[in-house]
């Protein structure tokens, strides 16, 4: 059925988040990198494997709550390539409703592009037939019947027109899940936990679906009081102790719906709901992690709260933020060490791994550029075939054309399977390096591809620039510098080919980070880590 296009345009771009696409991508990438850095320091088994099935994330302006939300989105990034639908449920800040409201939009626009609405999914939950799954035929104010899968649903365009709670989640979802995303945008007004829970159950889906609950915590109490109130709410959410009152979480109605699902499905489809971290609008973006993540043994004793930093102003009225994630509880994974035995025999040499990594990157590039090859397979098929590609890994993909750099994108911390990291960065290098225009299909035959697999970054002992330049190993070390105030950058070891002198190497890296090339320091003003890479070239 061909639908009549009805795009809901961004209402809070330029206010809650940047309206400029490049600025927005930069801000999201910076906040995700911050979150990945926190998560990367956790013990190996602090969190379940895989992408969460549901998250609770704040919805204030990105400068206030973006880093807290990024904790959940950095974990959700594990589902890129698998998750293609996000059911986003937020509260109603402007236009109150009774029930859970969908709207007649066929897509939501953000500065990063339009995201289609899963109209068929909405229609199913509403109890409409396939023939009626056309928003142009829906009447504003119409309600689902009592025998619908989600009887509390209704159609209400005004409550969506200026609402920010759902909208602010979409750019993060576009970034971590990629372009093949559909959404189900819903605003939950006055409704019981069971009514909202029925909506979530009706839209639960399989591994292709994530549930995103949008909620801040307390509003405009002095910082010290807000923290105490929020800690109590966090404990209640983790303990499934609902319902939460809207005074303590503005998204209480959607939160209570998720808690209803967690309680009612505890025997058939149990969920493991974890508190990740929290902050307030007065914490200048600094997020405090749950103590049970830093030391998983605390969880058995119910010690889940965060050790928060000293408030900058204890009496400042603030808004509270927290992120949570829920994973399905499954039986213990069986040992799959034999599963990849036959693949290991064909991938136990550097040359074989180089061929596989380069083929994977090129395959992802062809699919992104729309270049059809009858012999191509889905990149995930290659990842699934080799155990070393399924292990967590960090990579950079570098594209050159005629010996000149054409794009280079990567990550420093291993937070997802190496194969997926390579495949995604191949596309990112071609499309998201801000120094270059996007690669076109006509350029593909001219490109050379290099994949660099990073070792784990290790802190350096140097406490001054002079010591750093002595300690560096030219030709071997990749270097990360970070002053803790947003100036962070890295050079791969390959950069030594052009900057063989350690002083020049450090000077150019300082400039890349936004600091003067002449910067000197003592003590811990700049933190330095080094790493090695395994470079796979064509």
TrEMBL record:
Pfam family, one: Memo
Domain of life: Bacteria
Residues in AMMECR1 domain copies: 352-538
UniProt-listed InterPro entries: AMMECR1 (IPR023473), AMMECR1_dom_sf (IPR036071), AMMECR1_domain (IPR002733), AMMECR1_N (IPR027485), AmmeMemoSam_A (IPR027623), MEMO1_fam (IPR002737)
Coiled coil: none
Entry's family note: Belongs to the MEMO1 family.
Name of the protein in its database record: AmmeMemoRadiSam system protein B
Organism name: Bifidobacterium tissieri
Name of the gene encoding the protein in the UniProt record: amrB
